[in-house]
Amino acid sequence: MDQNSSFSAGTADIRSANGDALAEVTVIVCASCRDETGSDAHPRAGELLADDTRRAASGEVRVRTVECLGNCKRRLSAAILRDGCWSYVFGDLTAASGADLVTGAKLFATSTDGLIPWRGRPDSLKRGLVARIPPLDLLKD
């Protein structure tokens, strides 16, 4: 998709000094996640996390939402993806974890080995790591 193309309402424009690198990174937030009480109230905690992430991104990082990441036992969940690199899924986040997701996305954008560096990664992204998924071109079979 062209960087100038229109994305869903859940996407922030990418404009920063790291424009090219940040353009390859996307934060995906599960908008249907419930809080620790399991409440069906709206807006859902996942929607609040998506809003917090968009505010923290300030248009520098692409933020999109999805209806379900299937990580319900770990409550609020998000993923960080980068073209041609490993993808990450995180759980046990809070509605105020947006800045941590943006920090992780920025670390990922500047990574030279295609991994989010451990050093500098917010604690919520260390403790909340659910999975690291390789890019297809690294698969051996």
Which strand order does the major sheet show? 2-1-3-4-5
**Average residue-wise pLDDT:** 86
Number of domains: 1
Here the CATH topology equals: Glutaredoxin
User: How many individual helices?
Assistant: 4
CATH architecture: 3-Layer(aba) Sandwich
- CATH top level label: Alpha Beta
Determine the strand fraction and express it as a percent band: 15-25%
Question: What is the N-to-C succession of helices and strands?
Answer: HEHEEEHHE
Question: Based on CA inertia axes, which overall geometry fits?
Answer: globular
Indicate the radius of gyration in whole angstroms.
14 Å
Major beta sheet, specifics?
A: 5 strands, mixed
Unreliable residue runs: 1-17
How far apart lie the N and C ends?
28 Å
Q: Structural class given helices, strands, pairing?
A: alpha+beta
- Number of DSSP-assigned strands: 5
Protein name: DUF1636 domain-containing protein
Pfam families: DUF1636
